[in-house]
Amino acid sequence: MILDIDISLPLTLGCGQAHRWQRQGDVWEGVVDGKVLLLRPREGGVEAIGHLSRSRIMDYLRADDDLDAIYGSVAVDALMRDLTARYRGLRLLRQDPWECLATYLLAVNANVKRIGSMVEGLCRTFGDDLGGRHAFPRAEQIWERHQELDACRLGYRCQRMRSLAASVANGELVPDELRGLSYDECVHRLKNIPGVGDKVADCVALFSMDHLQAFPVDARIGRSLRENYGVSGSYHRCSAFGRGRFGPYAGYAQELLYQSEGESSWLGQTQAGGL
DNA sequence: CATCAACCTGATCA
DNA sequence: ATGATCAGGTTGA
To answer: N or C, fewer C-beta in 10 Å, chain A?
Structure first.
């Protein structure tokens, strides 16, 4: 199936916003809605293989986002004009709220590589076997056998995951219901969850709840703001700067800055430069 | 409201 | 090889 969409798969799927995509050559393999999905660049679009409908995939890839309008809106200075040109085709994804929340709960104080290993471990332990890959587990699946969380090497995230799985499994918390709320209310509710602070709440709001003005500030974005804009200080201060400067699509600006900062630090350490 | 130590693991440094 | 150091958000003092 060929999808008519302007997108860079490496930038979109490899930038760290989602953690279940694996690259094999130019083919990207991920798991969406409990189904394996293969994506490959094609002239003028993307080829998709898997048991997902066209509309479901287009929804996941946020094909409804008008990249020209969004990039134009965040290109408020020379740096952002450069990044919007350099990283054209980088899209935010519209991830499942439960999976996104659970994933970013684990992402606390961990780098991208470790997040991936914790998430894959969680999926192997609790998720449906899809033959090779595993689905992201439902909260009930984790809660039913939550003793096995102890072997997942989650550190102090273990108790938080147990607690989160319990409250979602028993219906106390319904991640999908947070989708309809305003940005402020959404973040407020998320931060009431043990283990969810400013950064995780902003990530979940941005990556799964359509709040494109969210501007998550992690260590990398903090460095970028300091280097490029001379901004530092509290989370609130940095995040408010991002939202104020870049506007309603600040989340897109954040991803562009994240990508840029990642490449510059990567080049700094990799003298050999191959690849 | 700002600061800061403690938390857990894996990677990297001496 | 072994131990020290560091990276990375949230919490509560």
So the answer is: C
List of protein residues whose beta carbon is under 7 A from strand B: A 109, 113-114, 117, 153-156, 233-234, 236-237
User: In 3D, which of A203, A187, A110 has the Cα closest to residue A154?
Assistant: A110
Residues of A147-184 as b/e, b for ≥16 C-beta within 10 angstroms? eebeebebeebbebbbbbbbbbbeeebebeebeebebe
Distance CA A217, CA A220 (A): 8
Express as a percent the part of chain A with pLDDT over 90.
94
Q: Residue A92 domain-assigned?
A: no
Q: Which residue is nearest to nucleotide B9 (CA to C1')?
A: A155
Contact A76, A246 (CB under 8 A): yes
Contacts of A78 (CB under 8 A, 6+ apart): none
Residues 6+ apart with CB under 8 A from A124: A134
- Please provide residue A157's backbone torsions phi and psi, each rounded to the nearest 5 degrees: -80, -15
- Same-domain pairing of A157 and A196: yes
Q: What is the pLDDT of residues A86-97, one digit of tens each?
A: 999 999 999 999
Q: What is the pTM of this model?
A: 0.95
Helix axes A67-74, A78-86, angle to 10 degrees: 150
